[in-house]
Design a protein that fits this description.
4-stranded antiparallel β-sheet, 4 strands, 5 helices, 31% helix, alpha+beta, 152 residues
Length: 152
């Protein structure tokens, strides 16, 4: 009876059965029932159903007619910094700096500060003191269109 089953099995299936038998022998007790069960698992399966291009849900980040949905990004932290000015100096001069040194900046006294978010200029402002802490009063906010132009 076992010979009848071997005649019905193709050469490819027999090779696969032999591989499984060898693997099972290495692992421990292998029976013909185990090999047959593994062969059944390797029977060709129908192809997976193909779907069309994914559609975006109406409430996604890109929004619909109402515009973008900004709720998904409102809690992302960003770094805001105020730049008084800057200058270029040599490493030699940098190493000579110590307490009391004065570094000349490229801005005039009273000139507005740059307000940057993650390194991108978004506004200009002036220093104020609020409850004994420094703050900044925005005097000019860069338009969104101008900020986008600077990125490209």
């Amino acid at each position: 009876m076992a010979e009848d089953n071997k005649d019905d099995i193709s050469a490819e299936e027999q090779a696969l059965a032999d591989e499984w038998a060898a693997a099972l022998n290495e692992a421990g007790n292998a029976s013909q029932d185990d090999i047959d069960a593994m062969l059944e698992d390797n029977v060709a399966k129908p192809p997976m159903e193909e779907f069309g291009a994914p559609t975006r849900p109406s409430g996604d980040l890109f929004g619909g007619a109402d515009g973008p949905n900004l709720d998904v990004i409102l809690d992302i932290p960003v770094t805001i910094s105020m730049e008084v000015g800057n200058t270029d100096i040599t490493i030699r001069n940098l190493l000579q700096l110590n307490q009391g040194s004065v570094v000349e900046l490229d801005r005039l006294a009273g000139e507005p500060l740059d307000v940057k978010v993650n390194g991108t200029l978004i506004a200009h402002g002036e220093v104020v003191v609020v409850n004994e802490k420094f703050g900044i009063r925005l005097t000019d906010v860069i338009s969104q269109a101008e900020r986008i132009k600077k990125l490209s």
